[in-house]
Design a protein that fits this description.
Elements lengths: L4 E10 L6 H19 L3 E9 L3 H10 L3 H18 L6 E4 L3 H16 L3 E11 L4 E3 L17 E10 L5 H10 L4 E2 L1 H12 L5 E2 L1 E2 L15 E2 L2 H5 L1 H4 L9 H6 L4 E5 L3 H15 L6 E5 L2 E3 L2 E2 L10 H7 L2 H11 L6 E3 L1 H31 L11 H4 L1 H17 L3 H22 L1 H4 L3 H25 L6 H8 L6 H4 L27 H30 L18 H5 L3 E12 L2 E11 L2 E7 L7 H4 L3 E5 L5 E3 L2 E3 L2 E2 L1 E3 L6 E3 L11 E2 L1
Parallel strand pairs: 1-2, 1-11, 2-3, 7-12, 11-12, 13-15
Antiparallel strand pairs: 4-5, 4-6, 6-8, 9-10, 13-14, 16-17, 16-19, 16-25, 17-18, 19-22, 20-21, 23-24
Helix pairs in contact: 2-3, 5-6, 11-12, 12-13, 13-16, 13-18, 15-16, 15-18, 16-18, 18-19
The structure holds 5'-O-[(L-methionyl)-sulphamoyl]adenosine.
Length: 663
């Protein structure tokens, strides 16, 4: 078989968070894809890693009183350990603090600079020194910082910029020539609109912090975010140094799998950088959807980060791997509900798959002395299996090749479901009663056992523990992964194979008991929380927190004063964080069919994904201002408590066409 190369990557994860279900989701998806391609005979390289530079990490380490590298080591270790527990089969783990990465990023930066695509300029805006934040003019409150109320200063900072704007046409042409470059297709339209609204050059260096890759020809600067982070996909392979055997073998990547919020960086900045370097472009950037947890956004402050480690302890790694890919269509957003997890695991892994295997091995044990029988006579019902399995295999391959895990596993489940029903219809226990029936009994039990074998191969990329166990119980040698995808062709099970009856592969979860346990845990937690709070209050002899004071009323204005402000509704199309500006979010909004960019100081209160689709209200005639190099064309309205402890963005009560005037 031709041993074609296949290269797949996850984003490299920031080390400011312990890994949670979101990071695990992308990593599990890539792992399943990597295992599937290996199953199909490809020469696979699967890369993941951690993104460790920047001011945020520097400060985080400082607040913990440890050196940045020591802090990064600890969190990178947590990622590695979780990946091991989740059976992630990555071939490489890149850290942006690794020596080779730092050295190669410097060379990449220099090469782009020598090409004339990086130039020195300055970055300017209103700067609040204590908050270390740039603010657009429109967001200043009485000319002061909207966050802390202190004085801001007009600041200019020397920085290097990448000529991103130069690549706009070539990027648009790329999307046209390679329709699958951005997937799912809906995300492609967003990128086209973004580029058409005008690309600005990109700030690629900073001088205000040190925790980064130094620009080797200008020691004042460190490389800022994207050249450092995105380059991991090639530095790990050896580019641009001599020792680049992996680069020659695997580049270009087939898939960069990322969350939807960073599709833009991967489909705009990354190809432009590669074009500038003059090297091949990746095959596809796949932007998957976002998980919420029990209907709420996942956030550290809410403390609702689902820890996959806990699920592994409670139920097993297969269960969580399977659930996240089966529950929602890859590309769509979805909600992680514990109850759905319990039900789906029971329905599909314990009842459908596990039970089929138990029934097969039990009946082969009882009626055929534990040996896989020879098929005998065939009824119409028996003849259905081979074509059904062939169709399932073809659909599975098509679905997997487009990363549609939900449908791929659904197909296997269709075959498994049919086999379970077939047992009930064919009733092997009745066939066993007389000689006439016994001929067909062999056929029925063969079909059932063969279904288990095929399912074990097709589910082996996701069920890393269960699939080999099914294989073992069927009496087969080696593992389904070693057997390969070609072995999934119907009829591979050899009659006479001795099955090994054992414990159920996926024991049924007692949902009621789990829910009771959860309730007890929750009550314990709440009790200890209120105990802690009481102790704290006692210690500080403080009154319990009061409702925040109301702001002083402002002087009256006339209706004419108010009429000067053009308030319009706007639909949020995209939202993202701004690297190095903890408090800012950058929104792309639609106002009456026209797109605008708005930068707002609401990052502490909203996850970007949460805002997308909201109909907000903006001041549409505010003079544009530049903030950290990002233009802000208007200001969104938000209400906050006087001390800024809480903030909520104003939205409209019912959907109206965007651009509607508010008065
Ligand atoms: N370091 C950058 C990526 C640089 S890639 C060259 C970064 N890191 S991150 O730690 O914030 O990871 C973001 C990624 O984690 C998302 O793109 C997605 O893959 C995954 N997820 C984190 N939370 C998620 C959800 N709630 N839901 C689904 N996946 C999300 O961005």
């Amino acid at each position: 078989m031709e041993n074609k190369a296949f290269y797949i990557t996850t984003p490299i994860y920031y080390v400011n968070d312990l890994p949670h279900i979101g990071h695990s989701y992308t990593t599990i998806a890539c792992d399943v894809m990597a295992r599937y391609k290996r199953l199909a005979g490809f020469d696979v390289y699967f890369l993941t890693g951690t993104d460790e530079h920047g001011q945020k990490i520097e400060r985080m380490a400082e607040s913990k009183g440890v050196a940045p590298k020591a802090y990064c080591d600890e969190i990178a270790g947590a990622f590695r350990r979780l990946w091991e527990r989740l059976d992630i089969s990555n071939d490489g783990f890149v850290r942006t603090t690794d020596d080779y990465h730092v050295r190669r990023v410097q060379k990449i930066f220099k090469r782009i600079y020598d090409n004339g695509d990086i130039y020195k300029d300055k970055y300017e805006g209103w700067y609040c020194t204590p908050c270390e934040s740039f603010w657009p003019e429109g967001q200043l409150v009485d000319g002061n910082c909207p966050d802390c109320g202190r004085k801001v200063e007009w600041t200019e900072e020397e920085a290097y910029f990448f000529k991103l704007s130069k690549y706009a046409d070539r990027l648009l042409k790329l999307y046209e020539d390679k329709p699958n470059f951005i997937q799912p297709a809906s995300r492609k339209n967003e990128m086209v609109a973004f580029i058409k609204s005008g690309l600005e050059d990109l700030c690629v260096s900073r001088t205000t912090f040190k925790w980064g890759v130094p620009v080797d020809f200008d020691g004042k600067h460190v490389v800022y975010v994207w050249i450092d982070a995105l380059s991991n996909y090639i530095t790990k392979l050896g580019f641009p140094e001599e020792d680049d055997e992996l680069y020659r073998r695997y580049w270009p990547a087939d898939f960069h799998v990322v969350g939807k919020e960073i599709v833009r960086f991967h489909s705009v900045i990354w190809p432009a950088l590669l074009m500038s370097l003059g090297i091949d472009l990746p095959g596809s950037v796949f932007g998957h959807g976002w998980w919420t947890a029990e209907g709420e956004k996942i956030s550290k402050s809410k403390g609702n980060m689902i820890d996959p480690g806990k699920y592994i302890d409670e139920f097993g790694s297969d269960q969580i791997r399977y659930f996240v890919l089966r529950e929602i269509s890859f590309g769509q957003d979805g909600d992680f509900s514990r109850l759905n997890f319990l039900h789906r695991t029971n329905a599909e892994l314990a009842n459908d798959l596990g039970n089929l295997l138990s029934r097969a091995t039990a009946m082969i044990g009882k009626f055929c002395e534990g040996l896989v029988p020879l098929p005998g006579s065939f009824d119409d019902m028996d003849r259905e299996f081979e074509p059904l399995a062939t169709e399932v295999l073809a659909n599975y391959v098509k679905a997997m090749d487009r990363l549609d895990f939900q449908s791929a596993f659904g197909e296997v489940l269709r075959l498994v479901g049919r086999a379970n029903k077939y047992i009930d219809e064919a009733a092997p226990w009745s066939l066993a009663k007389d000689d006439a029936g016994k001929e067909r009994l062999g056929t029925v039990l063969y079909n059932v056992a063969e279904t288990c074998r095929v399912a074990a191969i097709l589910l082996s990329p996701v069920l890393t523990k269960g699939a080999p166990e099914i294989w073992r119980q069927l009496g087969l040698e080696g593992t389904p992964a070693e057997a390969g995808l070609a072995a999934a062709k119907w009829g591979g099970l050899v009659p006479g194979t001795e099955v090994r009856r054992a414990e159920p592969v996926y024991p049924r979860i007692d949902v009621k008991a789990v829910l009771e346990r959860d309730a007890v845990e929750k009550a314990d937690k709440e009790a200890s929380k209120s105990k802690e709070a009481a102790a704290k209050a006692k210690e500080s002899k403080k009154e319990p927190a009061k409702a925040p004071a109301v702001d002083e009323p402002m002087p009256l204005i006339t209706i004419d004063d108010f009429a000067k402000i053009e308030l319009r509704t706007a639909e949020v199309l995209e939202a993202e964080r701004i690297e190095g500006a903890d408090k800012l979010l950058k929104l792309t909004v639609s106002v009456g069919g026209k797109q605008r960019q708005i930068v707002a100081g609401i990052a502490k209160f909203y996850e970007p994904a949460e805002l997308v689709g909201k109909h907000i209200v903006i001041v549409a005639n505010l003079q544009p201002a530049k903030l950290r190099g990002n233009i802000s064309e208007g200001m969104l309205l938000a209400a906050s408590t006087p001390g800024h402890e809480q903030l909520a963005v104003l939205t409209v009560d019912k959907p109206l066409p965007s651009g509607s005037r508010a008065k």
